[in-house]
Write a structure and sequence with these properties.
The protein has helices spanning 3-8, 25-32, 70-73, 76-87, 101-109; strands spanning 14-18, 37-44, 53-59, 64-69, 92-96, 116-118. The chain is α/β, with parallel strands linked by helices and 133 residues long. It has a six-stranded mixed β-sheet. The radius of gyration is 13 Å and the shape is globular. 29% of the residues are buried.
Length: 133
């Protein structure tokens, strides 16, 4: 069972490895942008604000889990639509396990996360510092 699936208790997930070999980034983003709500686990190698993210798991209510390998793509994944998805005000994002995720996304990856809630602090939907574009 994938790490995200354990966190959000998905029984039989359909996992898509988004790496342009097994599943195309643009196709994954197009599919995810049609959702009203997604869940996300943002995983840096070390949990420090100055470290880039290594992997992002994004889940849907339909038990789909999209695994984005940021180490392999670098910021190209964000340029290919991941930034648009995470900055969308039309999609609710529920974040798990990374209290500084919004700050890390903004500082390292230039993503201004919008319309999100942290599992540990539902209702807190603003990064610690304003997003810098």
């Amino acid at each position: 069972k994938c790490k995200m699936c354990k966190l959000i208790d998905i029984e039989n997930p359909e996992v898509f490895w988004v790496d342009n070999v097994n599943y195309d980034v643009a196709t994954a983003i197009e599919k995810l942008c049609r959702k009203k709500m997604i869940t996300a686990v943002l995983q840096p190698f070390r949990l420090e604000r100055s470290n880039p993210l290594d992997i992002i798991f994004i889940g849907t209510e339909e038990s789909e889990v999209f695994v984005f390998d940021i180490t392999a793509f670098g910021d190209q994944a964000f340029d290919l639509g991941l930034r648009q998805l995470l900055e969308s005000n039309d999609i609710i994002k529920l974040l798990f396990n990374c209290p500084d995720a919004a700050d890390t996304l903004n500082v390292i990856h230039s993503v201004c996360l919008q319309n999100f809630f942290r599992r540990s602090n539902l209702g807190g939907n603003a990064p610690k510092k304003p997003c810098i574009k």
